[in-house]
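Consider the record:
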Amino acid sequence: MTAMVLSCALVWAVFLALHLVLNGRWWPWLAVSLLPPVALALVPLVLLGAASVTGDGLAAALAAGCLLVAWPQNGINLRGLLARGSGEVGLRLVSWNTQHWNQGGDPDRFYAFLRALDADVYVLQEYLNGFEGGEVWGIDDEERLRAAFPRHHLAVGNHSVTLSRFPPAGPPVPVGACSLRVDLRAGGRVLSTYNVHIPVQLTVMNPLRPAFLRDMRRRAAARDREYAALVADLRGNPHPVLVTGDFNTSAAIGDIRRMPRSLRDAIGVCRAVLPASWNARARLRLWRIDWAFTGGGARVGSYRFRAAEGLSDHLVQELTVTV
């Protein structure tokens, strides 16, 4: 038993070392890094418990080291035990991946849900139709959007929609091929909102087929371009910023480290200890792939995930922001 626990601890330590070195640097590791982030905490905790039973000090030390080293990537939000929010009254914003804009669903129910969110600013992704496999086609729902939100300004681009009660400070700016920047005049200042949608890592298909690796490599290159374009625009932006959307990146995926250190993750004011936004239709959700960041003087007062009532596989991000 002791030898088995030590062997498992050594195997996990080797895996973790490879993960820390290759994650975010070698595109095939994208598939490996899709593991639920909480596994980076659960596995060493189980090993630590087994080592305490067998009295194996070396296995215990390995497990404890793995737990500590990988802690920033396990998705656990211990600040949620103390988070209370700032109490500041700011603009109400929702960010949501609509999953192909109500494709095949009831449009009346879809729009009723959006209106019930009652947000000052809506940041919506996947303003398109399509299917798994990569093929998408554009849609035109602007007439219905304007009718449903007559007091909001509408910006559309890169398959994204931004609706705002605050007037735009300029035309919308496409960022890369999948994100949209909209500058708003809010509270006497300009707030730059970034409506982000990073491409997904892979297509569900037989992993033994050569097409699987070709597709994943193509998608990894697309992700690189989107992150590079987003970071470049952020570094050149003098305004307060809110960056939110579907990053298709969990805490265990190294790509999220590309975000500038000057930005603050909104999770610090979220009360969830294990925040997760996907899969919204599953009872057990293990991945947080939807994020919100602020910088340049913008602050988040409250932040939570809200049920999408079966309309999408992503939960809705709700937050209040002050400038």
Notes: The first helix runs from residue 2 to 22.
